Structures are given as C-alpha cells and as structure tokens.
Amino acid sequence: MTERTAMPESRVDLAGIVIDLFDEDSALAHILDRAAHPPTESGRPVPVSVVSANLDHLAQFGRGSRWEGTLGDSLHPTAAGRGRMEWLTLLDGAPLVNRANRLTGRTWPRLAGSDLIGPLLDGAAAAGLSVGFLGGSPAVQQTLSRELPLTRPSLTIAGLWSPDRSTLVDPVASRDLARAIRVASPDILVVGLGKPRQELWMAQYGALTGARVLLAFGAVVDFLAGSVQRAPRWAAENGLEWAWRLALEPRRLARRYLVDDPPSLLRIQRDAAVIPTSARPNQPPQIRTDLLPSGGPGTFVGTDEEADIAACIVSYNSASSLDTLLASLRAEAGSVRLAVVVADNDSSDGTVDVVRRHAGVTLVQTGGNLGYAAALNMAMRASGMTRSYLILNADLELRPGAAAALLQRLAVSRAGIAVPKLVDEDGSILHSLRREPSPIATLGDALLGDTVPNRPALLSETEHNPEAYQHAHRVDWATGAALLIDADLAAEVGEWDEQFFLYSEETDFFRRARLAGAHVWYEPSAVIVHTGAGSGSSPDLDALLAVNRVRYARKHQLGERRIRAALTLREALRITRPGSRRALRALVDEARWADLPGPTPGRDCPDPLPGSIIIPAHNEASVIATTLSHLQSIVGTVEVIVACNGCTDETPVIARRFEGVRVLELETPSKTAALNAGDGAATLWPRLYLDADVENPPVAVRILFERLSRGDVLAARPSFRWDDAGATWPVRAFYRAKRRIPTTPPALWGAGAYAVSKAGRERFGAFPALTADDLFVDLQFDGFEKLVVTTPPVRVRTPQTTASLLAVLRRTYRGQAEIRRSPELVPHAPGPTAGTARGLLAGVWGPSSLVDALVCAALIARARLSARRAVSTWERDESTRPTDTSGGGAPHASATSHSAHAVPEPVHRSVSDAGPSIHPVPAGGPAADAQTDAGELRRTARP
Q1: In the list 317, 392, 771, 922, which could disulfide-bond 815, CB 3.0-4.6 Å?
Q2: Confidence of residue 920 (pLDDT cuts 50, 70, 90)
Q3: Where is the stretch described as Disordered (predicted)?
C-alpha cells in the first residue's frame, strides 16, 4: 500500500469527533492529490470521504449521539467493500474554530464546503479529474448542468444524479445508484444530500461508487446552481451565517439551530482535547470475504465442532413455526459454519418431533416451562465451541445472508452484539430498536404511546425515526427476538438473568454488555421476518411485562418508583383493556407478583447429574411417601438417603418401600445428627439437604446439581412460593406485606432445601448442634458464592392461625440469637439493622398495603418481645401438620417440618439498605439438640 502524501498539521478531539486541522491551501492540495494519486490496497484505490464538522455534525455524530461511531476519521479508517475507506474531517462552524484555536494556540481557518468547492472544481479541471454531483432537485441539477459548462468549460462532468427519498432509504435502490455512478467513473463525487443523510449514505454505499474522493458538502449543489443564496461575507466572518440561514428557512432549520446545536456548544467546552502528533491511523477490521450467501441449503455442524455461529432457539409449543425457521437457518449454513440448538420448554404440541426431523439440530429438553432466560442459558451451554451466539425466537425466518451480515457487523464495527432489521410478514419494518429505559421516557410512552412517533427521543423508549432503520449504527438495545452475541462477550457478561421469566431479560443482558464496555450495533442488511406469533398475549403476560420493567429498574437502580408510577399511569389510562387492569393490580400490589406466570415442572424430566439427596426425618410418616414419590424417577442416578432420627412411627418402614432409597436409623431425635449421618453415608456430589415434607420436583434437582457442577457458585437453593390458603386474615396480611418487600440478596434458607458442591461443603466441618442449620450454612458463603436458582417453585405452606405464626416467629428469633452467641461458628454475622422496616415501607403503595405492613410489623414486634423469655416447651406450627392416624392421632413432632414465615429477620454476611434486621436476645434459647431449622417452616410442596 502506498503512503498518503500529506497529513494534517494537527488534530483535535471535539466531543468525540476527530478533526483534522489544515490551512486552506493544504486542505485543497491534500484532497486533489488523493483524487489524482490515491493510495492502493490489494491493487485497488483506497477512497477518502471528506466531511465538515460544525455544531450540527457534533449533534449528529459526536459522543452520545444517535450516529456515534458510524463514520470513521483520519485515525480510524472503516471497512468498505473488500477494502477500506479513509476519512477526513475539516473544521467548519465558528464555535468549533474558536475552540480549536484556544486548544492549539494557533489560528485556523473555517473550511466550509461552500468555500472550498470553487477552488476544488478549478483544481480538478486543471488536473483533468472528473467530477460527479449527487443530490439536489431535478430542477437544480438541470440548472447546474447548464451553468457549469459555461463557468468552467474545461471541467469534466462525469454525471449528475438526483435520487428521491425513496431511493436513498431503499438498500437495493441505493446499491443500484452506486453502481450507476461507478459506471460513470467520477474521480470526485460531490454529495449534497443534507446532514446526516449524506454522511450515512457515503459510509454505507460510498465505496461502491468507485469515486476516489467523496465530498459531503451539503448545499453546495444548490449554491453552484444559484438556487440558494449564500450568506453575506460579513455574516460568515462574524459567525452569524447560522442566523442568516435561519432567517431564510425558519421552518426547516429552527430545530437544528435552536434545539439540537446549543447542547453541542456546551459539550465542546467540557469535552475537547488536542490529539498528540504521534498518533497514527489504526488498521481497520478485516472483512471476511467468505461470508457470502450460498443460495442453497447447507449442513449444520455438530456441537463438538467449532462453529462461526451457534443458533440458540427457545421453543414452547412452536411446532407451527419451527420448520420455517430451521429451513432458513439451513440455507444460511451454506455461507457460515452454523450449529443449531433448540431448548424446548416442555411443549405439548409436537414441537419436539419437529426438531427431531431436522438433521444436525441439537435438542435440549429443559424438563419444564422454565422461562425464556433459563432455557436460553441451557441452549448456550449446550452449543459447544463457537465464535458467536445467534439468539432467535422460534417464530422467525431469516432472509438470505442475514446470519453472515450480522457476523460481518461484529467484525467490521468491533461490536459485542449485532441486531438485525426485523420486518413483518408483509415486509413493513418493526420498530425493534430501543433506548435505555428511564422515568421520563416511560412517562412519555405512557402519555403518548404510538400516537406521536416523532416526539423527542427523551420522551420515548422506542426508536420511531424511519432513517434509524436504514443505516447501521450503535443502539442501546433492541427487541430480543434476534441478536448475535460475540462468544467472548457472552462469557464476560455471564448468563441471562433467570429472575425474568419472560420479558426484560434482553434489556438486562444488553445493559450488562454495555457496562462491560461492549457496543451494540444495528445491521439493516440482515433482515429477519418476525411473524408475531411468539408467546402471544394475555392479561397475565401483560402484567408480567409491566412487573418485569419494575424488576429491571430495581435491579439497576434506574428510578424504580418513578418508572413504576409512570407504568401505573399508563395502565390506568388504558383501564378498559383486561391486560391493563391486570397489570395495574400487579403494579400497585407487589403481593400479586407471585401469581404471575413463572417456572413450572414438566411431564418428563431428563436424568439429572449424579449427586446425593439427604433427607433428615423425625416422625414423618404422614409426608415421607409423598416426598419420596417425587424423587422416585431419579433414584439411581441420584443417591437418596433418608436419615431417620429418633423416629417412633412408621417413617423408616415407609421409606424402605421405595426402591433404591437408603434408610439410616439413629436413636437421637436430632436434625443436625441426621444431617451428619447422611453426610457420612453419602458418596456423590453435589448434595441436596431436603426437609422431609418438601415435595421437590426432579427438574429442580437437575437444575440445582447442574448449576453447582459448573463450579462458579458453591451453594444454591430452589425457588419457593408461599401458600396462605385457609389462613386467618392477620396471617394473610403478614405474608402480603412480606411479598411486597423488594428483592433481598440470595439466601439459602426459606425453601426447606439447600444444596452445596463438594468445595462448598468443605467450607465447614460437621453440622453443629444449632437450631438454624440452613441459616448456619448460608452464613458460610459470601453473596457471590451462593445463588437462588430459578426452578419450579417449592410451595411453602404458611401457618393457618395467628398463634401458630407467632410461635414460629419466636423460634426464628431464638434460632438467630443462638447463632449470634456462637461467633466461632459464624464469625461474620452482622449487627442489627433497620432493613425490615425499610423493606416494609418500600412495599407500601396505598392504604391496604399500609395496613398489611402495620400488621406485619406488629406481629414481628410481639414475637421479638416474647422471644426474650426463656421457655422449655418446643414451639412449632401445629396448624398445618397432618394428623397421624397410625400412632394415636397425636400431631408429629417433626424435626424438619416448618411453618412458613420466610425468616423475616435473616442474617447475612453483607447487609444492604433493604437487608435484614438482627437483634440480640438474652440467654435461654432453644436446647442444643433443637430439631427444626431457623425458619421452623412447615411446607407442603407441589411439583
């Protein structure tokens, strides 16, 4: 490649725009030299695009703008066709000139296109260079074609082109226009399409024109034709040309000069710097020339082979659309090495049979309807070695070349994520591009919806500007129906957040990717048809959509209360819709969130990884059969040990009826002794410690063991859900208030089930003789070492009476005090906080929620006071315990039964503002051989 013959004398960075500083003679010489003697690469001339930087240019292309990063500059060439394009940015606009002068200590001229075009045309005529003109109306072009031969008879005019708006926004028509210009062979192409359209068109199609120099000179075509009057010299010399133009065209230019430009003026005062003269241009990313649509079907690579793209598809009753998607992917496999993985969420419509008919497709059966994020994580883990992940809804069809175009965009823009153009079945563009959620944007969408699509970007999360869907550029995020993720970025960002069962999981992933430093790019040449079938819609799904937006705002601290209020207003304004009524109820009452769609177990569950389940049981004859029946299908692969401690009923006899279950019998009625005995007998890892009255579905075991086997967390528990059916009003009020408390850090207590890996179990020795074994284990791990895994939730039965609730609350505080008095076992237990009060207040959204919070606070206060008194009786919830008909009808004294209160005052190693509240109590707590855990939770789980 030959070297450039001239370089700018200096460069400055103004609000993200690298500006090349020339005097007028040097700039003219440089441009004409590039047109006459362009550098070459692989035998082809390297074109240069010349743009002028003024305040409007900064507003359109500067840091934080819609088109940031779309253009190159003299330090950052861009890929073009099979080579590259260089860029030159000249200083234009009085405010930028003044700022550059102050930064460099020199005086630089303003190099406006309207000033340079005359000398450039004269120089081109003298050098025998041909010039073409793109832009202006047909009438202006006709006038120009008459005037130029008269004023510059020696100038060679290659052609004049006056495309209409429909041509410029149509990729096919734009490529045809570029090829027509290429046939005419202009050395210099003057592009006067108006900012930002001219720069965007040059970036996307300029290399196809064959021009050696492209000049983004705005209205110079109109100036040359005499159809637009230039500002007088006094106005230009005093920085008032903008006022002159505004007076001539107020309707067209008012927004630009009075709204868009002033922020840029402030920005260059804060964001400006001189670029060292030692800076040299970077090498542009290499374009892969092998990524071309083949036009025919290909073969999918296996997950044991290295792929360019692993297509990850989540299906749920998708039999009607999967054939179309998989066929379109097979066509893409002719140009890229493509692996395909389908994670099925327990479809019942024959989806699995459809997948199995397609050779080379890997099927992952999740074992239930676990949600989009959970299934997607499984698909990505099963994808093997790949350079990127193509995330796809099941109701899509890829147009030819879409996968290759997305992969190309990752390379060309060094992007972390690339998103395609989504169109409806009739070809109309779907508004899939999004801005980061904010309270003001949510309010704008609430009040205006889609009725005012051209409102300011600040007032809408959705990108409605048609031009945004015609050109490649950076975006905040996009609809998650289709996106391509760089594999290295996916590993850095981590898995999709499974707390979002459906909706907002992509918003969260995009944000985490941006926080990791990655850019998201939109690629319009990658076209994917979205039929809109997807997950459908229902009042429950509408409510889940609204609630997950609140969850997202809460997770990322984005003004949750204001966003929630805006969403509440939105649904209130649309109260006639059933979905809005359902969403409104969920937004004002967080207790209703538990009733929204969530993970459910499937009819069949693939075998889990090997591991052990240890079940301590004391007089559990009434529940042990139900618990073991749920595990029967995985006994063998999973080691199941029932540790009967001090049983005087039929618990051991019933447990032995289940083939493959190992039964231990201990004389001492101690839960911790049973846990230690089970550990001594177990041989496999990970290990799940399961209360005898918890019906844990096999899919939950599978997910827990698989998650722990990856080694990045040491302990985990399944999800759970409170069931207060049949309880008294104060009990229901208590749990309604607890449900409204914002999400707290992950904890292992609460579900009657927790699991540890081998490395996690090595964190502590034998289980000590403590009441709160789950709380003790929880405190052995920092927050990043433990996890609440998204599974079909364990159903936690609450106490039925107020007296029973108070009994278990008293035991809760005594159990916590016992741990606090054992600092040698839990050295990092924190001191008291006001977290519970703050949490209760955070859940108050009206009179009814205030009443519930007051009831909850009163019950907690009463339980705390009574817990200070020493007692010799064993307090537990008898209200939900089944009656023993085999042993005289007396209630069982269960070592593992619990009345659910979700441990309202948990202990954590680290405490957040919404965290727990721990208060010390006097000595005189429970006996050392206490037989219940910290929560004393009574559960009846359902699969």
Answers
A1: 771
A2: very low
A3: 870-943
pLDDT in tens, 690-702: 999 888 888 899 8
Threshold 0.90, pTM exceeds: no
**Burial class of residue 856 in the structure, from the number of CB atoms within 10 Å of its CB (0-12 exposed, 13-18 middle, 19+ buried):** buried
Whole-number Å distance between alpha carbons of 624 and 622 = 6
Q: Convert 574-615 into a string of H (helix), E (strand) and C (coil).
A: CCCCHHHHHHHHHHHCHHHHHHCCCCEECCCCCCCCCEEEEE
Confidence of residue 533 (pLDDT cuts 50, 70, 90): very low
Residue type, 873: T
Name the token pair of 483.
């996106």
Is residue 936 scored above 80 in pLDDT?
A: no
Token pair 């292992």: residue? 748
- The string of DSSP letters for 745-814 reads ---S-SSSEEEE-HHHHTTS-SPPS-S-HHHHHHTTS-GGGEEEEEEEEEEEEPPSSHHHHHHHHHHHHH
Q: What span, in angstroms and rounded, lies between the C-alpha atoms of 679 and 688?
A: 10
Maximum pairwise Cα distance, the chain: 117
CB count in 10 Å sphere of residue 213: 26
Please give, one letter per residue, the 3-state secondary structure of 235-272: HHHCCCHHHHHHHHCHHHHHHHHHHHHHHHHHHHHHCE
At residue 21, what is the residue type?
L
Determine the residue type at 283.
Answer: Q
Give the separation between CA 464 and CA 184, rounded to whole angstroms. 36
Domains within the chain, CATH numbers bracketed: 10-275 (no CATH), 309-530 (3.90.550.10), 605-867 (3.90.550.10)
Q: How many CB atoms lie within 10 A of CB 152?
A: 17
Measured from the Cβ of residue 861, the count of other Cβ atoms closer than 10 Å reads 10
pLDDT score of 235 more than 50: yes
In three state form, how does the secondary structure of 8-55 look? CCEEEEECCEEEEECCHHHHHHHHHHHHHCCCEECCEECCEEEEEECH
75 and 275 Cβ atoms separated by less than 8 Å: yes
User: CA 119, CA 217: separation in Å to the nearest integer?
Assistant: 14
Q: How far apart are CA 188 and CA 209, in angstroms?
A: 10
Output the average pLDDT for the chain.
84
Torsion of CA 707, 713, 718, 719, to 10 degrees: -110
